[in-house]
Structures are given as C-alpha cells and as structure tokens.
Amino acid sequence: MTQSQMTPAPTQQMQECIEACMSCHSMCEETMSSCMQKGGGQQQMQIMRALLDCTEMTRMCADMMMRRSPMSAEMCMLCAKVCDMCAEACMSMPDDQQMMRCAEACRRCAQTCRAMAGAGM
C-alpha cells in the first residue's frame, strides 16, 4: 500500500488553512523578534505573550491537519480564537507596520481555521 492510498490528499480548503497557519506562524515569529529588539513595558509583554501563544498554536494546528488528527476541527477552532486574540493585541500598536502586518496574518488564519472547523474535516 502506498502512502497516497493510506492518507487522502488534503483538500484545497485544508491546504489553504495549513498555509495560512504557517504564514501566521512565521509572521508572529518575525514580530516577536521585532518586539524583542525594541524592548518595552507591560503592553509589549502582553503582546509578546499573545505572539508566543499564536506561534505555538498555529504550528500545532498545521501539524495536526497534515497528519489528519481526529482533533483537527477542535484545534482549528481554538487556533482561530488564539489568532483573534493575537490580532487584537497587535492592533493596540496601530503605528507599528510590523504589528499591522501580523494582525492581518492572524485575521486571515483565524478566518481559514473557522472555515475548516465548520467543514468538520
């Protein structure tokens, strides 16, 4: 039995969600690096916690979809919530272009994850 016979190819919707998760993961990592270079106070620390949560969740969500975990739908729903929280945190610094790009990546990921969760995989 070949690998393709054991595991069906990902649907277009799943592939888009995996890509959105990985793109969001990368953007949050870049944004965290930018935050660390700037330093900052309590607000910056709250944003960094949100970014860290989002990087971990998006990576795990993509991994679970790729291996067809039976928990993927639930993970996608949780990932959408974490991405929404991260987008809100980034939006608290509207003058920072990196934060705005990150918020956009988080919103796109949340949207695709909600769609995947609704699809029932």
UniProtKB/TrEMBL annotation:
InterPro entries: Csp_YhjQ, YHJQ-like
Bilayer-crossing regions: none
CDD domains: DUF326
Name of a matching Pfam family: Csp
Coiled-coil regions, chain positions: none
PANTHER family: CYTOPLASMIC PROTEIN, CYTOPLASMIC PROTEIN-RELATED
Protein name: Four-helix bundle copper-binding protein
Natural source organism: Streptomyces rameus
